[in-house]
Amino acid sequence: MYVKSLGGTDQIIGLISAVSPIAGIVLSFPAGILADRIGKRRLLVVSGFVFASAPLLYLVISNAFWLIPVRFFHGVSTAILGPVASAVICGAYPESKGEKLGIYSSATLVGRTIAPIAGGAIITAAAVFSAAWTYRAVYAAAFAVALPVLIMTLLIKEDAGIKVAALTLRDFAESLKEFITNGRLAGTAFIEMAIYFTFGAFETYLPVYLLSKGYPAFEIGLIFSLQIIAIALTKPFFGKLSDAVDRRVQIVTGILILGASIALITSMPGTVSIAALGIVFGLGMSLATVATGTYIADVARKENLGGSLGALSSIMDIGHSTGPLLTGIAVGSLSYTGGFLICSAVCAVSCIIFVFQAMRK
After folding, report:
1. Cα(346)–Cα(284) distance, integer angstroms
2. How far is CA 37 from each of CA 165, 218, 252, rounded to the nearest angstrom?
3. How many structural domains does the chain have?
4. Around 354, how many Cα atoms within 13 Å sit in the side-chain half-sphere?
5. Which of 17, 24, 33, 29 shows the shortest CA–CA distance to 76?
6. Model-level pTM greater than 0.85?
7. Each residue's pLDDT tens digit, 287-319
8. To 10 degrees, the CA torsion angle through 126, 129, 135, 139?
9. How far apart are CA 86 and CA 132, in angstroms?
10. Residue 338: domain span
11. What CATH number is attached to the domain comprising 329?
C-alpha cells in the first residue's frame, strides 16, 4: 500500500518483497559465525540498533525505488536476530531449550498477528489528520516500539569467558564445510528448507486457489488466522515435548503431517474442512520446526552453535523464497493440485534424507 502511494508498480512491489529474505539468505550464516567469535550480545545490540533506526528511513522516502535498500537494511536485523537469539536461548537453558525456543517462537507469532491489525488502525487514524503521514505513521510507531527493544539488548550480559577472535575468510569456509559435511546438520537443514518451501507455497497460493473457487475474503482470512493461532498455542507445548522425546521422531512426524496436509488441501469440500486441515498443517509445522533448532543445538559443536543456527536460518530463507517461485511455475503448467503435490513430494524426499543422515553416527 505504501509503495502504491509512492507511485510504485506491481513489479517494484515484487522486488521490494524479495529483498528482505535475501538479507536473511546472505547474512544469517555470517552473523551466526560472528556471534561465536565476538559474542552474542554484540550481535544482538547491532540487531536492536537496526530495528530501531530502520523505521526512521521510511519517513524520508519519496521514491518507491529507495525502499529496496531500506528493506535490505531492515532485513539485516532479522537476519542477525534469528540465529543469534536462538543460540542465546540454547546456551541459557540447555536442559529446557526446546520449551524456551517454543515460547520465543510463539512470541514472534503473537507480534506478527497483532502487527497487521495495529498497522491498519494506525493508517486509518493517521489518514484523518494528515494524508502525507497516512503510511509513515506506521513506521513512526515501529520506531517507538523498537526503542525499548534496543535498550533491553544493552542489558543482556555477555557469555562468561568470551574471547574476541579475528575472523578470516578461511574461518567462514571451514565453518561452512563443517556444517555441510556433518550429515545430521545438513539433513536437518534440508528438512527446514522443505518446511518453509511448503509453507511459502501454502501461504501464497492457497488464498488464490480459494478465491478462484468463490470463497469470500473473510473466510480465507479466518482459515489463516486459525492456523497461526494453532502454531502459536502449541509451540511451547511441542517444545517441551521435544525436551522429553527423541527430537528426530518429532521432526519426522511433523514433516509427514505437513506433506500429507498440503497434498489433501484441494480435495477438501468446504470452509470447515479446509480450516480443519489448515490447522493440522499448522500443527505439523509447529511440531517439526520447534525441534529442528534444538536438534541442531544437540549435534553441533558448542563453539560453532551460532554458525550452525545461522546456516539453518539461511537455508530456511532459501526454502521460503523458492517455494512460491517454483510452485507458481507448477501451478501455471499443471494445476493447483499439481503444485501442492510437488510440495508434498519435497517434504517426502527431505524426510527420507533426514532419516538416512540422522541415523548415521
Report:
1. 15
2. 5, 49, 33
3. 1
4. 28
5. 24
6. no
7. 999 998 888 888 887 777 777 888 888 888 888
8. -70
9. 39
10. 2-358
11. 1.20.1250.20
